Description:
heterodimer; A: alpha+beta; six-stranded antiparallel β-sheet; 14 helices; 21 strands; globular; B: alpha/beta; Rossmann fold; 2 domains; six-stranded mixed β-sheet; four-stranded antiparallel β-sheet; 9 helices; 10 strands; 23% strand
Amino acid sequence: MVLENTPPAFADWIGPALVFFLQAAVMLGLVALVVGYLVSAFRYGPLGGGDVTYRMLRTAIRDLLSQSPRRILALAWLAIQESLRRRVLVGFGVFLLILLFAGWFLDTRSNDPATLYLSFVLTATTYLVLLMALFLSAFSLPADIKNHTIYTIVTKPVRPSEIVLGRILGFSAIGTVLLAVMGLFSYFFVVRVLNHTHEVDVASLAPSGGESSGQSTGRTDPAQNHRHQVTLDADGHGATDVVQGHWHTVDERVENGKTTYVVGPPQDLLNARVPAYADRLLFKTRFGAADTRGISVGNEWKYRSFIEGATLASAIWTFDDITPERYPDGLPLEMTIRVFRSHKGDIEKGILGSIVLKNPRTGLSSKINTFTARDFETDQLQIPRSLTDPAGKPIDLFDDLAPDGQLEIVLQCLDDSQYFGVALPDIYLRARDASFTMNFIKSYLGIWVQMLLVTSFGVMFSTFLSGAVAMMATLAALVLGFFTQFVYGVAVGTVEGGGPIESMVRILQQQNVTTQLEPGLTRDVVQILDNVFMFFMQAMTSLLPDFRRFSDVEYVAHGFDIPWDVIGVQVVSGLGYVAAMSLIGYFFLRTREVAR
Amino acid sequence: MAAEVIVETRNLSKVYRDFWGRQKVRALKALDLEIRQGEIFGLLGPNGSGKTTTIKLLLGLLFPTSGQALVFGRDATDVSKNERLGFLPEESYLYRFLNAEETLDFYGRLFDMSAKVRKERSAALIDMVGLGWAKKRQLKEYSKGMARRIGLAQALINDPELILLDEPTSGLDPIGTREMKDLILKLKAQGKTVLMSSHLLADVQDVCDRIAILHQGELKELGRVDSLLKVRDETQIRVRGLSKAGEAEIRQVIERDHASVLTMDNPTTTLEELFLSIVRDSEARPGRRAKSDS
Lengths: 596, 294
């Protein structure tokens, strides 16, 4: 799984995040105050404007201190009733239809069906729920204002903040229920679709590993577009090989003199691996010199860097806390190595690599472990406690290689002119497995936070825009939120081709992104305008939520446990946005004439 | 001692502007009003005279362009004034997917009332407006008259001290109109202050203590209804059972006083009164056609 930004620990994140939140709140508050005063001063004169601004602030503080939970709940109840009336359940019907016909479109011959199906259900749920939240939240308040039903609300002792909060709460409640039901259906859909078994092809069973071993091998019949190789021991117990990310247990049974083979359900198909990542990753160049990065094989993606095969180049991961208490059965090493071929070679064969365990203090290392790396496949290595050094002398994993808990894992590519691409999370120790069901629920929490964000943005925009415009504004925030990193790149100038105006000029003049614009007045004007745009873009990307950070689909689809730290960060930052949107919505609603 | 001032406007003006800030309509011009506790005050005027604008300004639904609107001594934009206020809008702008009970319960919750109080108030008000038989029906199934009645019930859910009624009799049939007027008088009897707007002169004449006549956003007349309607230099004589000789004698007296007789004939009732008497007669004796005297 690609983990470009290591998620911070919640405890480390919360302090700086709160400071940033308060800074942003103070800055925005000051800007709003100045703009508010200027508008009031324009209408009522400098003194009158000051008086209006002061009274507004005083009223706002009083309003925010006199919130009534009963009123908020009443308005939330109304929002729920309204959602039901607006046939929100149609969205659920669409979801069921998608699930029913999903099998037609999903490639069941995929190498990793679990990833495929999990990505599919989670993505479908996310888009449907976000769309639903978008429509509900953006149109509700404008419809109330247009139909004048708002008159009977605002002439009661209802604070504008209660109207905003009530709506956010109501739409979120209905979204939560829908999400829970969708989650339940998705869970059973994935489990049922992926669950399968095979029959052992008895004719294919033949003795192996010598006559005395009693071992036999064979294969299963095909099911769900794949088949397995079976290995049975002398007692008739065995297992299949790993195909499409899973394996089965196989047991021989003799009933009434007839031998049958029972193949169990798929194992390791739906996982929630808890990885222990290395503390750091360092490299050695092709001449053996230490470096912080490997080499680049192209100017595309800087996440991974590469080591050259059949040279002294290596990637060295340093792990901490390697103790027999934590890993009583040895080290369960898993790695996903990216393969870059400078020549095709035998495309059916993987690229040969080696793993060596090393004591970082003494330099003592284990014998070379070789393996074959295939692109986009996760290799598993169980490293036992008893090892040998290169000379064949027995050594102990914990006592000799990691006496103080620190251990180096050295990776090399052995094939000439071929390359391995690695990043820190590409090799990890599978410390334990968490519950898949719990992980699935956690991923829905991520979707829930996204729904909460869209709802609060929709309601906030609907306090001062008409329904269609509020929907477009929310959609813009959502799209910008999904492409925050790219927009930030444009804003700070790291994306080639300049700002939005320069890009438009390039499109119109059919220029590529790398050539310089002709010097002159046009270029100067374009760049000045772009600088203004880019300033606002940078400000927007700093303030808008990065929606991809709220998505946990990658974790679940690739079988990794979502750390509670990640969930904590998502939920707290989501609630932070809700609070901010409620406050902004309050001021917009407070300062507008609802009867216009 | 003069009663407490409940509603006060000082130089209240409202100008509607377009998106670019250009003046569209000057809806209200420097209105000065005082409405005291316990009176029924009528805002009278043709369509577009500024009645609804005045009410919206008093409710804080619009902000004044200049001047001040005070309700219970507080600025009209102060939400807390709504605790003691009830409002019946011109149309019954209610949530059509709720039924009568749900509607009243919802508005009761907006006043932070407990469940018990809400239940009692809802039942009493539904009974008062005579919608007990339709309390479980969604409001979208209600006729206009029924919607007005449930609208009035929601305006009274908090037992308000001040009730603002925007065109309270619009869309009501004569019976409904009379019931509404009776109810307004009943509210006055309970010591409540009522501010109503209407363009129907008869409604205002029947119930209001004082009226303000607005035209094109300007206050044209303000005062007690009885004194405003009194024509001081004319005398109307209505007599029953007068003989021809008696009539001739009265005419002689008038001539001696150098006054001129404008009319002296049988007075007519209003159409509303006639319709009501026919309906009453029809209800008292079902199946019988009411006869007119002509």
